[in-house]
């Protein structure tokens, strides 16, 4: 059975990996834009939203999801 804490940790991990991955794209210059492009900005907002959602689920404890 999946608890809210486990679900929150999973969401937080996926969101953090998305944010780190999208920022790493700038390090290898894999785009036509200098800096953060519009699609990358939307991805960062989505990744940050998933990260925040995961962080809010963690304190809810071991109740079933």
* Overall domain count: 1
Quick one: overall form?
elongated
According to DSSP, the number of beta strands is 0
**Count, helices:** 2
Q: State the share of residues found in helices, binned by percent.
A: 55-70%
Query: Average pLDDT value?
Result: 90
Structural class: mainly alpha
Q: What is the N-to-C order of secondary-structure elements (H for helix, E for strand)? A: HH
Characterize the main sheet.
none
Assess the beta-strand content as a share of residues: under 5%
Termini separation: 8 Å
As a whole number of angstroms, the C-alpha radius of gyration is: 15 Å
Unreliable residue stretches? none
Quick take:
The chain is mostly helical and 65 residues long.
